[in-house]
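LOG
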Amino acid sequence: MPELPETETIARDLDREIAGRRIETVIITRADVLREVGPLALQRRVSGTTIEHVWRRAKLVVLDLNTGDRIVVQPRFTGALLIDAGSLPGHERRYSTLELVLDDGRSVHYRDIRRLGTVTLMSPKRFADYTSNLGVEPLDPAFTGEHLSVLFRGSRQAIKKVLMDQRALAGVGNIYANEALWRAEIDPSREARTLDTQEATRLRDAIVAVLTESIALRGTSFRDYRDASGGKGGFVERLAVYGRESEACPRCGARLVGTHAIDGRTTVLCVRCQR
């Protein structure tokens, strides 16, 4: 967390609210979230620049600056980019690691409770190198059932593990892998190479559907995820399996099973429905 729907929501919010704004200065309070740049260099290269566009790649939020540099934020578990017009709650401000002070009096805080996320300043070449190993975007028209079949072909790894490999498919994490596999009625532990073309197409459609629906509901919030305005995501009410171990399967009524055996992460599935 956050995964693709959450970072897409944050990026869209920020692009709508702060694209075109000038960054007056940068205030850094927890430098341990910085990567590849020190506090002084970050302040020097970012202060006075204009934010041209904010967008998402995989699970990254990317701020394009008019200098060509990019601020690349990977929120990981407890990170959030919050717009502050002077009313940011104290409990959120307490965990602010850095603040971009804008020319209209507002700020953007990178808040990270556990400080496991990162903030990096990259040149265009460095960004291209950094993202060159990321897989296809699941909401890209190029992502088809045939494309997914090719990714799975010859792999002895569990299907769920391949789905979460960012080198294969960018942006899908544990929550949405669980949900998509349940929708497609596919056992997460099956070897990826065993899927036929019809099953791969069904899984591709389930991935796209669950991600699109979650974006429409502004992501999934359990505890830490917030959108750029501090709001919670509403997709938690639509979750069919994730976080519902031992409850009834919404499709067949069988008891949902939870395991950590597949990839060390929580996997919840219906052993009756998913084959």
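LOG (cont.) second protein
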Amino acid sequence: MPHASLPLTVASDVAAALKEGKAVVALESTIITHGMPYPQNLAMAREVEAIVRQAGAVPATIAVLDGHLMVGLSDDDLERLAQEGHKAAKASRRDLAALLVKRGIAGTTVATTMQIAALAGIQVFATGGIGGVHRGAAETFDISADLSELAKTPVAVVCAGAKSILDIGKTLEVLETNGVPVLGFGTDEFPAFFARESGHKVDHRFDQPEEVAAVIALQQRLGMPGGVLVANPIPVADALDAAAIEARIAEAIAAAEAAGVTRKALTPFLLQRIFELTEGRSLAANIALVKNNALVAAQIAVALAALNHADIVV
């Protein structure tokens, strides 16, 4: 369903769900284009959408295709993105208009997926991990646009914490400065993507999706700008040892510095190097945490839809 005033195309099942007030979960696409190799990326994308459906919500994978903001992709679209891989652009907020004019193909980052989800009216979004303050940011000023987007765009983001290649303490400080509530789902500690612990506490802990949905709804009623960050740890069985993964991250960062890799190329480089250094265990963990986040996001979206419906009925 195209929108006349914007190059926004919402898939028919997503549009119908939104019109009827049913649960919808936005999904990002840089994890497909830049986060995993083919064909694992395609299998992951299909499995994540299936998990969302099985939990009672409609998946809306978001991407830029041929000059359109796509909200909900066909299986052919998913396969096209997966095969394009790193040849596709990585669309952050600053790139969006230019990529649309160029009629390019791009995976959308957390920030851009939030922006497009909000345009479509989607309230809940599942990703792997958010971007944040990079290590050494005091010299490089490398801070992800994800943090500023969370401060102003009213979309709840379910993640396994911040990517472990980041400075998690400083990332949480920036979120606090910008008034973004950080909720732990079943945890008192902010997770570190591949590991369940980071040594940093969340703002508030909740153990039920209905509780998180209530926070999201009340945040919006209060007129608070911005989103809600829901930190959902990787399952115990899939988590990597925190000390071991930290050592591999340090090696990957050293390799990036030696190669002069910076800015948008840095995160994909680091994730690939960590994959090599862990002999593929990081990829298995990444897939597991994304699936887990999709499940929790769908449960929250279903609870939020029920809450919204109850408000309308009353």
